[in-house]
Structures are given as C-alpha cells and as structure tokens.
Design goal:
Length: 326
C-alpha cells in the first residue's frame, strides 16, 4: 500500500532541515531571489473557523530557504468549484509565525533564514463555500514588498475529511504500552533504540479516555519517519504539556506506522488510519501528519492543530478545562 502524504515535498524537506535544489543559477550571479508560498495545512472545509498554515520559500542561486519570523497579511479569494472563476473576495487575516517547537521565533519581521523552521498561521478563517480558494500574501521581506499566491481546495464537511472540532471523537482502541505488538508500532523511535522513549504517553488509548470521561490531548505523528520532522519536537512538547498540566487531561501519542519500509511496505496503524487515512474519489489514499487533537470529557473534539501548533494556544485550551478528579 502506498500512501500519499500531503505536505508539499520541497516544503517538507526545507522544514526538515534539508535543502531542495533548483535548476541552473541565474545569469546575474545569484543576486535575484524569487518567492513562493505553499499550503502547510490541509483538510480545509466550509462553514467553520479554522487555521490555515502557509510556508514561504525563497529561491536563489544557492537553492531554497525559508522565510520565517514576524507576521504576514493574507487575503483569501474564491475561484469557483473548479478554480476557473474570477476571484471573489473572501476573508482576510494576519498570519503569525509559528516555529517548530524548540526553534527560534524572536524576530519581528519576515526574513530569509537558513536555520529557523516554521510556518505562518492565519487563525479563525471561515470559508463560506466549498471549492477552490486562493491565498494571496503581500509581505515585506528583508525590506522589499513581495506578492505571492497559492491555490487550495475547501470541501464540504460531509465530503471525505478527517475528524473536525465539534464532532464526536472516534472511540479508537489505539495502541498502548501494554499492547502485544512490536515496540516500533507503538512508537517508531523504538525501531532505532529498541525502547519506547516516552512510555507515559502510551498509557491510555483514546477509547479508554473517552469511556472514563477524561479529556485527552492526542498527538498523531511518527517521530522516526516524519517527512517534515515536526513530529519529534512535537512529541517532546506533548511531554512538557503532560508534566505542566497533569490534572487537565491524559496525554496520548499515536504512532502512525505499523510497518514502514518504503516504498514496498507502508502499513498504517489502525488507530492512525481511522483518524487520518482517507480514500479519495479517485481511489488514491491520502494522509497528513502530525495532527494534535484535544478531546473533551464528553468525547467531543474541542480543537485540532496541524501540522504545527502554537504552544500558547494549546496551553490556553488546557487551562480552560476543569481539573480532573484524581
């Protein structure tokens, strides 16, 4: 089984700290820089506020680098059901820079960087209808005004989608430390070390948390095989949340892969497949990760974050929960 993972390849490599290569250097010796924006978020749907994440890529004679830090303005326009229509003005937003956990976010203006990793996030964006939408960014980067666009699809929530806020959480019997399976299926880091490095995040299944009426903060991700390399830092951040807010929720890491030896073997764990793997109308299978979900004590999804999250947003959501009984 081959699973299409939706984060754009070049953006995934850049965010993972690698570099993409371009064609021949420009004739001016590399003084010109061009910019492109790519969607870093997915599974957008009509009729409800959601986060839209975008990565800005700079290209010059030295290859590709990311634009990070500060904020950028984003305007959204509707292009019709198939993307061929004249743009119709939609919502606009200020997108804040969200770094990969553990990386720098101290800059106050967008700039081309080589070591920082992250995306820009526009929060509470509501698309009033399904179809093709365009995001237009007009940032000032290193003192020069730029303009770039990216088109993406917004679906009806009744279409193929992954679980969304306001819906009942799936009562999935995700793997735990007690599951009689190989350790790497519980946490892919065990494929290298032989041991599960975060057993405290594998004590509960989603089904057990819901059945016992406990809120759950659930991270779906594969630390060892994450194309964007977001998952490892995010698991570390989940451990920090667990230590800082032990009475607000149970904390669960769901490993994506039961077996992962591409391209021949890509077997998704059932728990991850139930939540994230979808068969599209053309019979292809698509999946994105990582995703972070907050499930309330009533089993309803309170919020979700993907593919990056702002720790302050997650902490505010945890603090809004009442303390659990011991």
């Amino acid at each position: 089984m081959t699973v299409r993972r939706l984060l754009p390849v070049c953006l995934a490599l850049l965010l993972g700290g690698a570099s993409c290569t371009s064609g021949s250097p420009p004739d001016d010796g590399g003084l010109d820089t061009t910019f492109a924006v790519q969607l870093a978020s997915s599974w957008h749907y009509a009729g409800a506020p959601q986060r839209v994440q975008l990565g800005i890529v700079a290209s010059d004679a030295n290859g590709f680098r990311l634009v990070t830090q500060g904020t950028v303005e984003v305007a959204f326009a509707y292009l019709g059901t198939d993307g061929s229509g004249a743009p119709e003005n939609g919502p606009s937003a200020t997108a804040d820079y969200v770094p990969v956990p553990g990386t720098d976010a101290s800059g106050d203006a967008p700039t081309i960087t080589t070591g920082d990793r992250g995306v820009y996030e526009a929060a509470d964006v509501t698309f009033d209808r399904a179809g093709v939408w365009r995001a237009t960014l007009s940032p000032e980067i290193d003192g020069l005004a730029r303009r770039m666009t990216a088109d993406f699809t917004v679906t009806e929530l009744s279409d193929v989608h992954i679980p969304a806020p306001g819906e009942p959480a799936l009562r999935t019997k995700t793997l735990t430390i007690d599951s009689k399976v190989r350790k790497g299926a519980i946490d892919s880091m065990a494929d290298g070390s032989g041991e599960i490095p975060d057993p405290e995040l594998h004590e509960w299944s989603i089904a057990e948390a819901i059945d016992q009426g406990r809120p759950a903060l659930v991270l779906f991700g594969t630390p060892a095989y994450c194309e964007s390399q977001f998952c490892g830092p995010e698991v570390t951040e989940l451990q920090r949340f667990a230590a800082a807010y032990p009475d607000r929720a149970v904390y669960i890491h769901v490993e994506i892969w039961k077996e992962y030896k591409p391209p021949e073997v890509q077997i998704v764990n059932k728990g991850a497949a139930d939540w994230l793997l979808r068969t599209m109308p053309d019979d292809s299978q698509e999946m994105t990760e990582p995703w972070l979900y907050l499930i309330g004590a009533d089993g309803i999804i309170v919020d979700r974050w993907g593919s990056l999250f702002d720790p302050a947003d997650v902490e505010a959501a945890l603090e809004a929960l009442p303390p659990m009984d011991a």
